[in-house]
Structure formats: C-alpha cells, structure tokens
Design brief:
Elements lengths: L2 H16 L2 H14 L14 H14 L3 H21 E8 L11 H11 L3 E6 L2 E2 L2 H12 L3 E6 L13 H8 L4 E5 L15 E4 L3 E5 L3 E2 H5 L3 E8 L2 H14 L3 E3 L2
Parallel strand pairs: 2-4, 3-8, 4-5
Antiparallel strand pairs: 1-9, 2-6, 5-10, 6-7, 7-9
C-alpha cells in the first residue's frame, strides 16, 4: 500500500471516530453523488474546515476516486460504530461529585453486575464488612442458581493481612458460595495480598474498582472504577481467575 493511501485511510479512520455517524453519512452521500472533489467545497454539517481540508488533500495525493472514498467512509463508520456497540466502558465513582460530569456510584454498579449474572459470578476483595446490600444481591444470585465464587484476603489469624475475617462473614451469610484464598504465594509473592477488587459476570461484564467490599467504600470513600460490557476484557478476567483455581494458586475453603 502506498503512503498516500495509508494516509487517506488514517484520516478516514479519524473522521469516523470524531464525527457523528449521521454527518459521516451525509458527507459520504455527497461524495458518492457528486463523483467529484468539489463535493468537499463549502461546509458540511459536523465537520471542521481543517478536517475537510485534510481529507481533500489526502484524496488528491492518493488519486482515489471520490466514489471510493465515499464507500470507505460508509464502511469505516459502520465498522467503528458496530465495534463500539460490542464494548462499552462506564466511569464509576463514589465520593464528591459535580453537575459537570455524570457518574454512577460503586454500590449501584456492583449490584448491577451481580444482578446481571445468569450462570457465573466471580468477585475479589481485600477486606469485607458492612455490605448488607451486596450480600443480599449475592443471596439473590445464588437463589437464581448462579455459581458464585469469592476470592478474599485471609485474616491475620489465617496468615493473611487483614484483621477482619471476611471469609467467615461470607461463609456465614452465603453458605452455598465458593470462597477462595491465596495461600500458595511462593517466594516471588511472599508477603503479598489479595488487593484486586473486581467482579465479573458470565464472561461478558466486569467491574474493576479501587473499592473494597465495605460500607465506607460503597458510600463514603472516594473510589473510582470502570464497568466494561462486552469485548475481550471480561472474558480474559474470568478465564484468568478460573485458571488460578485450576492451577492450584487459589485454594477453596472447606
């Protein structure tokens, strides 16, 4: 592929990511109908002059027809927006908020993940206490026959780093859940702890956060995270956690 065509493809890719698809479609229609570079003369809704100038210059350099470029715009726009529909990422925030940016709270996001699980749910946390709303959501998941697995940091009494025995709390409240701990650290991770805070449902949705399973994390702390729907990340996270069980890194509590 020539440098000029590669440049044109790069500009088209940027345009479909920056401009509303309806406006991309309008521009593509003008190029397809006019069959001439003159279709880029004047204003086109949603495009800045600089964007049109770069596109016009790239078309001239590539010697591609405007019909071809119009087709490229249509195809690239559909592909880009289809890919976006397969994966979405939302900001999750607990703590001081403003009216300038819309965010969702940690507790809402976590319960949504739990409620969305149809078959499998895997959650991890460093510490657990005072999270009745989360426990109730997990109870409902178990009632729906969801396989619930929890990886928690062990208490100091059991060789871990936390004073509160979160595993015992969860075992008492969720007797049908599978609870795991990280005992086999080896020399490479000696002194390490379960500091990850994630939840993944059915390999399709996950929540990655700074928040532990505590009342303060749900309501008072400044916590940040992301909820990811679709794409590869939830699947990779699910398989990684399951592989840690399969390889014996994680131990199931009796």
């Amino acid at each position: 592929m020539s440098k000029s065509k590669a440049k044109l493809i790069g500009i088209v890719t940027s345009l479909v990511a920056e401009v509303h698809p309806d406006n991309v479609g309008l521009l593509a229609s003008r190029l397809l109908d006019a069959g001439s570079i003159t279709a880029l003369d004047g204003k086109v809704m949603g495009f800045g002059d600089g964007q049109l100038d770069r596109l016009r210059s790239a078309i001239d350099e590539s010697e591609m027809s405007t019909e071809e470029v119009g087709g490229m715009l249509v195809g690239a726009s559909h592909a880009y927006n289809y890919a976006r529909s397969l994966e979405s990422v939302d900001l999750i925030w607990t703590g001081p908020s403003t009216r300038l940016v819309s965010t969702r709270r940690t507790e809402q996001a976590l319960i949504q993940i739990i409620d969305a699980a149809d078959a499998n749910l895997f959650m991890t946390s460093f510490v657990v206490y005072d999270v009745s709303s989360v426990i109730n959501a997990l109870k409902n998941a178990l009632t729906r026959s969801v396989s619930v697995r929890l990886l928690l940091e062990s208490s100091e009494e059991h060789g871990g780093r936390v004073t509160i025995d979160g595993a015992s709390i969860m075992r008492e409240n969720l007797p049908n859940a599978e609870i795991y701990r990280w005992d086999d650290k080896g020399s490479d991770f000696m002194g390490g702890s379960v500091h990850a805070k994630v939840a993944v449902a059915d390999e399709s949705t996950c929540f990655i956060s700074s928040a532990n399973l505590t009342g303060h994390a749900m309501e008072r702390n400044m916590e940040a995270g992301v909820m990811i729907r679709g794409g590869d990340i939830p699947t990779q996270l699910h398989h990684h956690l399951r592989a840690l069980i399969t390889t014996g890194v994680l131990t199931k509590l009796d």
